[in-house]
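Worked Example 4.2. Consider the chain below.
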Amino acid sequence: MTISGLAGLSDEELIGVIRRNPAQVKKVLKSAQKSTNAATTAAATATASRVEFLARTNQIDPRIQKGLQNQELQLVDTYLSVAKSISGLTMIDMLKDSDVKTIGVCMLNGGKLEKDEVFTLTGLRLLYGVGAGAAETVANLSAVNFGMISSIIAGGEFEFKANGKTLIPWCSLEIFKTHFIKEVVEGDVAPDYAYGFALGNASKDFGMLRLENPKMIESQKAIEFNVRYGAAAPENAFLKLILVGSRAYKH
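Applying the procedure from the previous section yields the following structure tokens:
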């Protein structure tokens, strides 16, 4: 059993493999995720999300199960992002019911998934950057070079809520800096958010938290990612949150 073999299976075939030998599937995925080959780790990320979704099909609406079976719906790799200004703030709700889909700014209306787009969340990615202005506009955000979160942010906490429940209670934001070393660039006016490099694997996504316990997120229900930290963020600072996983999507 290999990662390329799993990635090439249809949803129905993959469900069969998961049911017959879940331990071996998990072992193959973990091994591939540690690879130094970019193509292998990319395949592992996408396949892991599919595996987590398909292993939980009994938890979703029967209509969606039927849609997947008759191929009206398909599983798609999903990366949903939202950026928020944190200029001068000590806390921020990254997803709000007032959010409106805007290219380059936000990919979720009202902090919710679209109807029938059930989503298995397998990872959270949090990035930080400083722009030329504080407004959440395409012009400002397109100029921001997002990177590792600053020490101010890393000293804080986050919680994640969905489906009307707290799925991740308050945890340290330092987790979004794990597996990386920090190199201060000489002459950088703000070395506090210097470049991050993955230890032994330059292909890994910095700022990524892989969930040991993936979460099934229901459509049309509020999603929350709330952040708080001790000191005010610098002027014109931004955070970007990316939700990573697989979702059922209509062709």
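The chain has two domains: 1-55, 78-250. Residues 1-55 form one domain. Compare this with Example 4.1 before moving on.
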